[in-house]
């Protein structure tokens, strides 16, 4: 028995003596005990169990296949079994182990706590090793199951046992050395870890962050492996047992000599022999040995963890027996010392045990397990330069979900670092990309592929709603900017200024004509049609303003209908003037009286008729399928174009087609009249104006179709203004020049002079 095991057995004796000396617990009844040493070997443990259960001094059992530490419980043991150190989750199965109780938590809780610990620090890529025993294999299986639920991937999982061939230990060590995972979770016994760490120390590898189970991470004998600095794990909470240290140190020579276990411990601790017949190289224990100065796990009581489990186990059994043999709560009532106890009675009583000893509660659930409470311990370098065990938090399974885990101290990581190490197979994908799993690898290993245009990513790429667009980082959707030809824009301001300027020019021209209305050049130009033409040109210039600003239901209907009607009115006036020129030339021929057929009434009727046809087309369009405001999502993916939908494309092209038809007809007539013998040839000016008009609108069609967004509106405004300026400049500018700058030519004689 090693020094630590001896401390456990002495703690049991200490608890029994406390109970035997108590006047409240089992008064008048004394508990006894037998101690059998398992020598940390399964066959010896089986032998000791049989000796205990059969009441025999010796029993021989030869079977080399007994390699499971729970075999004695599973097949042979029929008595109540109470354990302070067995943590295998399998022992909670009451179908197989109905008589099993323990004061140490099941590994099922520890496995879940370890998985949450790994998840807490963002480690998704780990290595796993365990003891090839019930403790290690069952504990690791529970951990891997919990880790999978937490989204943790395991690069490798290896098991080993301290008695394995050296090549097996070396292979496990090589797997750790080659691993890409920084974090290694070890669910192993202290003895197994000692063998593995010795092999790793022989050929050090890159630093690892060790996460350990309570069986080894709290073992002070392993703290010498300083390359494990920063190791983190759960341990049984530290405790204080009043009077235990004094009891451990109170060993008389006679007591030591009377016990083979104490004799072995004493001789090993002080390197001497209690027997007088010592060898030449051996020293005799002469009584000068001072156990109070001995540095040994036996005397180390600052980290009482499992020792308290032994202490609580003894008291739990005592309380269960007390509830059976001392049923009355009155302390003056004596207990029945002659009652023959059966294991079932104590078993039933243990299920109801609930008490507190030295501030530590003791109770059991339906599986015979206590409430799982762990300390989070960290291997840190102390002031002396040695690795020390420091408590930095706790885990309490009785607390609500997501509140069981708490850290209340400063942690040290591998190599003494103060920053949390990173252990991932693949770094998180940057914004704008999404995960694509690598073939044949765990889900934590992936490639980062850019998201398609218009999509963002969280865990995977998904498109933004139609009115939204990803930000630059592609991690959130933002409303798309809405675009239209706003009055605040420079382009809109320029177009509006030109439009107003054109209207003012038409009004100014009308004012000049009105002021000189009695002069020959004004009278010869059919002043009534000229004024009507200038009025329609003013409307043409101003109708372009309806295309600027956010489209509304009324503005969409107004802009197209006003444009169509005013331009037809304008072309009708030009057509009327062209016909008048032709008729006037025919009237100069001998015997001709055509002017009476196209006088002012006929001219007015022509303008009204042609304009009415356009009005009728617009009314039908607006009644059946009028233009309406719409959000255009197709032209640009990253912004919304607010525009006027045509409603009926046929209606729109009918309006334009009718204007084009009149313009072509007017152009043909003007061409026919261009060579008339007149010193001021009105037909030539109309020809040029119609040529400009037709060229502008023929260019407008492809430009209108191909221009994106708000520039479609700008092209339409430009076409309106260009054709309007073409008409006013070609038809009225030469006349105004003569009226204002060459008044000597503004005579009937000059106008009637033939070339």
UniProtKB/TrEMBL annotation:
Record-linked Pfam families: 7tm_3 (PF00003), ANF_receptor (PF01094), NCD3G (PF07562)
Transmembrane segments: 491-514, 529-550, 562-585, 605-624, 650-673, 685-705, 717-741
Bilayer topology: Multi-pass membrane protein
Alphabetical list of InterPro entries matching this protein: ANF_lig-bd_rcpt, GPCR_3, GPCR_3_9-Cys_dom, GPCR_3_9-Cys_sf, GPCR_3_C, GPCR_3_Ca_sens_rcpt-rel, GPCR_3_CS, GPCR_3_vmron_rcpt_2
One example GO MF annotation: G protein-coupled receptor activity
Predominant location: membrane
Gene3D superfamilies assigned to the protein according to its UniProt record, in alphabetical order: 3.40.50.2300, GPCR, family 3, nine cysteines domain
CDD domains: 7tmC_V2R_pheromone
GO cellular component terms listed in the entry, alphabetical order: plasma membrane
G-protein coupled receptors family 3 profile domain segment(s): 491-755
Annotated keywords: Cell membrane, G-protein coupled receptor, Glycoprotein, Membrane, Receptor, Signal, Transducer, Transmembrane, Transmembrane helix
Cell location: Cell membrane
Family: Belongs to the G-protein coupled receptor 3 family.
The protein, known as: G-protein coupled receptors family 3 profile domain-containing protein
């Amino acid at each position: 028995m090693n020094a630590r095991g001896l401390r456990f057995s002495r703690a049991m004796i200490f608890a029994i003596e406390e109970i035997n000396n108590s006047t409240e617990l089992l008064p008048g009844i004394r508990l006894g005990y037998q101690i059998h040493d398992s020598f940390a070997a399964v066959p010896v443990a089986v032998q000791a169990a049989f000796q205990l259960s059969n009441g025999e001094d010796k029993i021989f059992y030869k079977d080399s296949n007994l390699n499971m530490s729970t075999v004695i419980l599973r097949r042979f043991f029929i008595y109540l079994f109470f354990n302070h150190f067995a943590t295998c989750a399998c022992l909670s199965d009451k179908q197989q182990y109905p008589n099993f109780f323990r004061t140490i938590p099941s590994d099922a809780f520890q496995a879940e706590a370890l998985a949450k610990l790994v998840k807490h620090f963002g480690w998704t890529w780990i290595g796993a090793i365990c003891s090839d025993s019930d403790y290690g294999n069952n504990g690791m299986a529970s951990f891997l199951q919990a880790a999978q639920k937490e989204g943790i991937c395991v690069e490798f999982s290896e098991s080993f046992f301290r008695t394995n061939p050296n090549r097996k230990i070396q292979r496990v060590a090589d797997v750790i050395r080659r691993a890409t995972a920084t974090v290694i979770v070890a669910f192993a016994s202290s003895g197994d870890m000692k063998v593995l760490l010795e092999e790793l120390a022989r050929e050090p590898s890159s630093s690892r962050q060790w996460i350990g189970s309570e069986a080894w991470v709290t073992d002070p004998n392993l703290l010498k492996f300083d390359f494990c600095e920063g190791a983190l794990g759960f341990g049984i909470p530290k405790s204080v047992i009043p009077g235990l240290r004094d009891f451990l140190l109170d060993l008389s020579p006679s007591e030591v000599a009377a016990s083979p276990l104490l004799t072995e411990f004493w001789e090993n601790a002080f390197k001497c022999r209690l027997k007088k017949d010592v060898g030449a190289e051996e020293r005799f224990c002469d009584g000068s040995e001072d156990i109070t100065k001995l540095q040994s796990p036996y005397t180390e009581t600052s980290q009482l963890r499992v020792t308290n489990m032994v202490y609580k186990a003894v008291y739990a059994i005592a309380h269960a027996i007390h509830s059976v043999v001392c049923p009355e709560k009155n302390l003056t009532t004596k207990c029945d010392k002659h009652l023959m106890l059966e294991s079932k009675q104590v078993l039933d009583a243990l299920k109801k045990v609930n008490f507190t000893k030295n501030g530590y509660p003791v109770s059991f659930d339906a599986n015979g397990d206590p409430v799982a409470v762990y300390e989070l311990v960290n291997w840190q370098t102390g002031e002396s330069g040695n690795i020390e065990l420091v408590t930095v938090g706790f885990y309490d399974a009785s607390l609500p979900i997501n509140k069981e885990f708490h850290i209340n101290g400063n942690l040290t990581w591998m190599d003494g670092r103060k920053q949390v190490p990173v252990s991932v197979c693949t770094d998180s994908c940057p914004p704008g990309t999404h995960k694509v799993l690598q073939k044949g690898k765990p889900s934590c290993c992936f490639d980062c592929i850019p998201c398609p245009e218009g999509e963002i990513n969280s865990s995977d790429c998904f498109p933004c709603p139609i009115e939204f667009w990803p930000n630059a980082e592609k991690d959130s959707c933002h409303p798309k900017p809405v675009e239209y030809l706003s009055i605040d824009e420079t382009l809109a301001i320029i177009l509006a200024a030109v439009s107003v300027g054109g209207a003012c020019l038409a009004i100014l021209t009308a004012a000049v004509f009105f002021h000189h209305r009695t002069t020959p050049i004004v009278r010869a130009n059919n002043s009534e049609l000229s004024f009507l033409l200038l009025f329609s040109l003013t409307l043409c210039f101003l109708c372009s303003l309806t295309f600027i600003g956010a489209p509304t239901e009324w503005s969409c209907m107004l802009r197209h209908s006003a444009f169509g009607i005013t331009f037809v009115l304008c072309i009708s006036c030009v057509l009327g003037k062209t016909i008048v020129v032709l008729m006037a030339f025919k009237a100069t021929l001998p015997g001709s009286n055509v002017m009476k057929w196209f006088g002012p009434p006929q001219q007015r009727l022509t303008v009204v008729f042609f304009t009415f046809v356009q009005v009728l087309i617009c009314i039908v369009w607006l009644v059946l399928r009028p233009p309406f405001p719409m959000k255009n999502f197709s032209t640009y993916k990253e912004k919304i174009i607010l525009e006027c939908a045509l409603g009926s494309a046929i209606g729109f092209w009918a309006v334009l087609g009718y204007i084009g038809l009149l313009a072509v007809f007017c152009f043909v007539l003007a061409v026919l009249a261009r060579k008339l013998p007149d010193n001021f040839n009105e037909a030539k000016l109309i020809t040029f104006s119609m040529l400009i008009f037709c060229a502008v609108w023929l260019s407008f069609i492809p430009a209108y179709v191909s221009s994106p967004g708000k520039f479609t509106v700008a092209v339409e405004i430009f076409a309106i203004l260009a054709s309007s300026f073409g008409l006013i400049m070609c038809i009225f500018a030469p006349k105004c020049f003569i009226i204002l700058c060459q008044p000597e030519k503004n005579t009937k004689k000059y106008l009637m002079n033939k070339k």
